[in-house]
Amino acid sequence: SDSTISCNVTGLTKALDFVDWETSSGTDINNDSKYTITNGIFDETTNSETTTLAVKGSISAVDTNYNCVVGADEWAIVSPNYRKTLVSLDVFAMSSTPKFVTNKVEQMLTCTINGLDDNNPVEVIWRDTRDGTPLSGASDTDYSIDQGTVSSGTQSSVLTIKTDKMKTYNTGSSFTYKCSAKSSQYPESAESTELDVEANVLTFGVEAVSKEVLVGSDSTISCNVTGLTKALDFVDWETSSGTD
User: Which of 15, 33, 34, 58 has an alpha carbon within 20 to 30 A of 149's alpha carbon?
Assistant: First the structure.
């Protein structure tokens, strides 16, 4: 998605006399179609003006710094000594792997965010796709949310769907929740677009694999259990009358 960063200039009695943006290395981007510069409007109630730089999503794949360049005659900030202020555009990536689940016990879905500052976790917002309402987490009878912490630039937020809620999903069906992220490092940043977090409800089945062999021969029969997300917790065999 496209991103917008801004530069707020205060202490003014009139509009800025010069506004421009450039890369951190000093390359002017005023005529580059990948960027849109908005000068802003002088606000006499706050004696300020905010200029913005919109960056196309196609080039905002890595953390990038830009210079906000302004001139104000009333402050003797004139060419060639315009004031340059470094503005950061930091990016992160979100991912989730579709998961197989059962509808008899609580289940956990994970939303992973990469490219973060270790000291600044994002706020992760979870939503049910059926109504789009943000899930409250701790106060919700159907869900709990662990925001997660950042380690080596990665944060994993976990949505736990409680057992009673899971029972409302039919076996063989699929369902989707959504997660998005909001920066705490730069609070003015908009909430990210939403990522689908998918789950597929398995169907439990036990298939008997019977055999017919020559009398007196060693024989092996088997039992194939399907619809599992992990190894069986208990396995045993007994006679048809119940003898272990």
Answer: 58
Write out the H or E segment, with its range, that includes residue 42.
none
What is the rounded distance in angstroms from the CA atom of residue 91 to the CA atom of residue 21?
Answer: 19
CA proximity to 47, closest of 15, 72, 20, 17: 15
The tokens for 50 are: 């905010």
For tokens 């580059």, the residue is 32
DSSP H/E element including 150: strand 150-151
Query: 224 vs 19, 132, 183, CA distance in Å?
Result: 71, 40, 48
In angstroms, the CA 219 to CA 237 distance is 15
Q: CB–CB of 154/112 below 8 Å?
A: yes
Distance from C-alpha of 39 to C-alpha of 97, rounded to nearest angstrom: 42
Q: What angle do CA 215, 219, 222 make, to 5 degrees?
A: 135
| pLDDT tens string 205-236 | 999 999 888 899 999 999 999 999 999 999 99
pLDDT in tens, 147-187: 999 999 999 999 999 999 999 999 999 999 999 999 999 99
Q: Which distant-in-sequence residues (6+ apart) come within 8 Å of 177 by Cβ?
A: 109, 126, 127, 128, 129, 159, 196, 197, 199
CA 218-220-226 angle, 5° bins = 180
